[in-house]
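Worked example 2:
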Amino acid sequence: MSEITWLRSHVERCLEDHWGDFPLTVDNDGDYPFRSGTAHCYASIVNGDPHFIRVWAFVARVPRRTLKLLSELNEINARAMTVRVYWNGDSVIAEQTIHAGGLNKETLGQACDAVGAAADAIGVLLVAMFGGETPYPALDTEDQEEESR
């Protein structure tokens, strides 16, 4: 078994253990998509030397990159503990990267939870401040209970 095949199996097991009965899916790029509130998130294997796992999310599409937007992203990054947020093209992205050697259910679960929660909260804030849209509409309380893992 190759190292990347083993890593993919390990990532899938960690995600299944973290999410329980939540159905695990793999997209055409080999990423593991999931939703967290308004954010569209992924867990991705970065094949390299060394290997990494990148948990990332589309936070929001914002019409224009402005100095105020970039200043707000800088403020968010200054307060963030594990998630970084940045402008890319017409979107704001949140992400956390894990070295494959330190990957386990807890580290991957923490990254998925932190990126998802930050992206959901930040997306709503940025859209209110700068316009644009989040990947998904905000969920009401009843929908949030159904979405929870």
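The helical segments are 3-19, 67-79, 105-130, 141-147. The chain has four helices and five strands.
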